[in-house]
Fold:
Amino acid sequence: MLNELKQRFSIPGLSFEQNHNGLVSVVIQSAACTGELFFQGAHVSSWRPFGHEPVLWLSQKSNYEKGKPIRGGVPICFPWFGPNASNTTLPAHGFARLQEWQLVGAQQKNSGAMELSLETTIDPFRLSFQVEFGNELKMTLKTLLPQNAMSSQSYEDALHTYFSVSDVRTISIRGLEPASFIDKVDDAQLKPATDSPIRIESETDRVYLDTQSDCVLEDTQWKRAIRVAKLGSASTVVWNPWIDKSKRMADFGDAEWPGMVCIETANIGDSRIRLSPGESHSTTAVISVDALSTNRNL
Ligand code: TA6
Structure:
């Protein structure tokens, strides 16, 4: 498989690896950035733009084996988010992050970015995922309901991005001040907008509703601001498991929770997507990093 991939996609700065469990990944090393994506789940596992520290967080305890999700990076949640509403024996966050995607295209852009295109099928939908690894990380999940589908179908999706932070207790997230949210650590109650930047002071699991806004993660210790811009997404999820939930996850180190926060680009619940036969929808996240001047008032 590796040889076929190397022959088919021989591009400077692109290489392929297979780990001891047989998972195949594509590795990007260019002037603009380094990055990695596993074919299982079309899972972006790392991205480090030139001049910056790694932007995505990966657990030291993550599994890297067939049929198990990687803990960190950008899991793709599809066709549902969280537990399956009618059958909790089905995998959390759906099938997309667990199944093998096919690399159908790779090209170096004039900007120096490397663009990868992957595809898979989750009946009755056809999914394509386009990732541009450059000085920005641009990810688009496009979902098509084929013309010959018997009826309209709905789904939830999310680009469940894990960000690496200096200390989650000291960062702030701007952009969601005006949005109401479902608080999943408080009986999934609908709560009004706080009108202030988000600070993480305990387990946090919030689905912000009806927001098209960019989010900016301000990390004063690491003097950086990470912007999450989005298109085709009406929900944003913010998650940190804090102490007790971290201990309950085997693939999440007990002491890792201060080093990460998720800002997820999604369409969940009332914002789920409904397609008629022949229709498609794209959910896009564009991640960029800038130096943060330290004299800002948070
Ligand atoms: O996005 C937040 C969330 O839904 C949390 O409730 C937590 O379950 C997280 O996703 C991780 O889910 P996973 O199935 O990857 O452990």
